[in-house]
From TrEMBL:
Keywords: Membrane, Transmembrane, Transmembrane helix, Transport. One of its GO terms (biological process) is myo-inositol transport. It is found in: Membrane. This is Major facilitator superfamily (MFS) profile domain-containing protein. The chain crosses the membrane at residues 184-202, 214-231, 243-261, 281-300, 373-390, 410-427, 434-456, 462-480, 501-521, 533-552. One of its GO terms (cellular component) is membrane.
Length: 625
């Protein structure tokens, strides 16, 4: 394919606007923020880089910053860049050939972020074992002959942190990060988690426990939005996806550790007049992981981007030096981040509408809201957190003893963690849509099997085994699909100029419906029976599969420019295209026409198709396509 043809296609992409709805011109904004260095000529770019070295109080590295600026502007042309020597080029090559060979400080930061995610998970699951004990102690027992009001109160106690996150706490993320930085926000939220977990263990009534868990939301919400951002801002692009994935994986590890604590403290007897010491220790044990995060977080480097937002450029460079293998790489990444910040400030001053209006009014942004909202909503309504919070009660209802229920819950938590590991590889190999399109129907079948297992007569070992098997299979299918995809997908769904606001929306959707699940599971079981309650969430998985197949764009391996075009395709166009692809899938995978190629939909696919056609390797999927 000719260079002229590619340039013409890129010009067409840059001009393309769905409905032309933005006052400023959303495409122009996004293009400017993708790589603002490309607007400068070579000499001007070098001069800006040298001036930035002065601002970083490193005039001795002016040439290094100039080299870094040239690499950042045109990363694919470094081999022919005359300013670079052999050592410089080798450092850049190593980013591809030895991408996991990074400074120890970076991996220390990774450990800190992983522990913060584990705090999150343990905060979520420690309540599981306590659910077996505190309702009766606090006068809200459930079961046959008990008031329906008790189930709603029990559900609200479980759900309170997540409603607190979604409706209030999560919206403190921006000011906390602005004034305290990433590390300060993580330290504060872990401190809140520590205090509220101890507080929960000391409560003397259901409303007192509910109040403590309300404030626990302030230790969960801002942390869940800050840690992935902190990791993304500190990590090299080559391994950024793998690190963002760690949030979900180590949250799953924390959930598993919550079950370990539930099992460890189950048999602790009441002592010294303390009633319910076992469940109090279960809740209080979640205060241990935050201590380790708080001890080490300030030994990790602060986000260089945050330092620059405060005008502390020398500190920003020192921080970036600790996170990169060479001064050249640190200078390159810091200068590019600085220029993007400058472009963001310029865009903000030019905008005639605020970012909230832009998020809603621009069709491309609304498509990002829809996609991220869908995957976050379905992360809850696939039914996973019903089992995470109530598995001990579910296994007990199936006929298991309390100790057996806690043991089965631990096994479920281990599956949740272990089967998240493959997603580090599969999410970028198979893509987000593919994982979801496989995961949703599989999760639906697992939940149908779980619900049907309750039809086995009570007292049967087979009933307990089948319920456990169904929930385990559901978790195994969830962990590499709908588990890791939502946070990764949401981070990719929004253009830079509204990304923080868009992520706040996505995380709030996640936590709100997390609370809805926690609140409604006890009364749902009463109304639908355990069988019907599991069938209910099985049906939601089929809904999720349908919505993902027809409306969710793929984001795997795409640049920001390509994502801009992907999210500009109308839902109607996307749905019609996916209907046509049913014929393609049937012909290729059922009837064995392996030579067929998919019809292109997006600009980057059309460019690839033209290249394949020029090489004579493209076969249309069907006539008229």
């Amino acid at each position: 394919m000719s260079k002229t043809s590619i340039i013409e296609n890129e010009k067409h992409h840059d001009m393309q606007l769905e409905d032309g709805a933005s006052v400023l011109g959303a495409k122009d904004v996004n293009i400017k923020l993708v790589n603002p260095l490309r607007q400068f000529g070579r000499d001007e770019l070098i001069e800006r880089a040298r001036a930035f070295a002065e601002r970083c109080e490193r005039p001795d590295l002016q040439d290094t910053f100039a080299k870094g600026a040239l690499i950042a502007a045109h990363p694919g042309l470094f081999e022919s860049e005359e300013m670079l020597n052999a050592e410089d080029k080798e450092w850049i090559r190593r980013e591809t050939t030895h991408k996991w060979s990074q400074p120890k400080t970076l991996y220390w930061m990774v450990i800190c972020c992983s522990l913060a995610a584990a705090v999150q998970g343990m905060d979520q699951s420690a309540i599981n074992g306590a659910n077996l004990f505190f309702p009766s102690q606090f006068g809200i027992p459930q079961g046959r002959g008990q008031p329906e009001r008790n189930e709603w109160i029990h559900g609200m106690v479980n759900a309170m942190p997540y409603f607190s996150c979604s409706l209030i706490a999560n919206w403190f993320t921006d000011p906390l990060n602005r004034y305290l930085g990433r590390r300060g926000t993580i330290f504060l939220t872990c401190g809140i988690a520590f205090i509220t977990c101890i507080w929960s263990a000391l409560t003397d009534s259901w409303w007192h426990l509910m109040l403590a868990r309300f404030f626990l939301g302030f230790g969960i919400g801002p942390k869940s939005a800050t840690v992935p951002v902190y990791a993304a801002e500190c990590t090299p692009a080559a391994i950024r996806g793998g690190l963002v994935m760690q949030w979900q994986m180590w949250t799953a590890f924390g959930i598993m550790m919550g079950y370990v604590a539930d099992l460890a403290f189950y048999s602790v007897p009441d002592q010294s007049g303390i009633v319910g010491l076992n469940w109090r220790l279960m809740l209080g044990s979640a205060a241990i992981p935050p201590i380790f995060v708080m001890i080490q977080v300030f030994f990790c480097p602060e986000s260089p981007r945050w330092y620059m937002s405060k005008g502390r450029f020398a500190d920003a460079f020192k921080s970036m030096q600790r996170l990169r293998n060479a001064d050249l790489l640190a200078a390159r990444d810091l200068f590019l981040a600085h220029e993007i910040l400058e472009a963001e400030h310029e865009v903000s001053s030019m905008m005639k509408r605020n970012k909230l209006v832009e998020l809603i009014a621009v069709p491309r942004n609304r498509k990002g809201m829809m996609g991220s909202g869908l995957v976050m909503f379905m992360q809850q309504f696939c039914g996973i957190n019903v089992i995470a919070y109530y598995s001990s009660s579910i296994f007990a209802d199936a006929g298991a003893t309390q100790m057996e229920s806690l043991g089965a819950s631990l096994g479920w938590g281990a599956c949740n963690f272990l089967f998240a590991l493959p997603a580090i590889w599969t999410i970028d190999v198979f893509g987000r849509r593919t994982l979801l399109c496989i995961g949703f129907p599989a999760m639906s079948l697992a939940l149908w099997f779980t619900g049907a297992s309750f039809n086995i007569p009570e007292g049967s070992t087979a009933r307990i085994a089948c319920v456990a098997l169904g929930t385990y299979l559901h978790c195994i299918f969830y962990s590499p699909s709908e588990g890791p995809v939502p946070f990764t997908y949401s981070a990719e769904s929004f253009p830079l100029y509204v990304r923080d606001l868009g992520m706040s929306w996505a995380v709030s959707v996640c936590w709100f419906f997390n609370g809805v699940l926690s609140l409604t599971w006890p009364p749902l079981q009463r109304a639908f029976t355990p069988q019907g309650a599991f069938y209910y969430y099985a049906a939601w998985n089929l809904f999720g599969w349908t919505m993902v197949y027809f409306f969710l764009p793929e984001t795997k391996g795409l640049t920001l420019e390509e994502l801009d075009a992907v999210f500009s395709v109308k839902n109607r166009t996307h749905m019609k295209y996916q209907f046509r692809q049913i014929s393609y899938y049937m012909q290729k995978y059922v009837f064995g026409h392996k030579e067929l190629q998919k019809e292109p939909l997006y600009l980057h696919e059309k460019l690839s198709m033209e290249e394949r056609m020029a090489a004579g390797t493209f076969a249309p999927a069907a006539a008229g396509h």
